[in-house]
Amino acid sequence: MSEEEWEAVAGEHTKKLTEDRETKATGAHTVSINAFHDVNATVVQLENIMLTGDESSGQK
To answer: Does the residue 36 lie in any domain?
Structure first.
């Protein structure tokens, strides 16, 4: 790959990365942190049930 081709490809990715960093730094949260943690905990519980089975029902 020539240097010009490399700069063209890298330039596109650099621009996208710069935009993403700016959005992350200034972007507003669209969901409260409490709701995020609640959903995250629920997903972890569901994963555990699916992997180990639900002990209360006696099924695996």
So the answer is: yes
The domain in which residue 19 lies consists of 3-52
- Name the residue type at position 24: K
Query: How far is it, in rounded angstroms, from Cα 25 to Cα 47?
Result: 32
**52: Cβ contacts below 8 Å, ≥ 6 apart:** 60
Q: How far is CA 5 from CA 14, 15, 19, 46, in A?
A: 14, 16, 22, 47
- CB of 8 closer than 8 Å to CB of 2: no
Over residues 6-33, the pLDDT tens digits come to 888 888 888 889 888 888 877 777 778 8
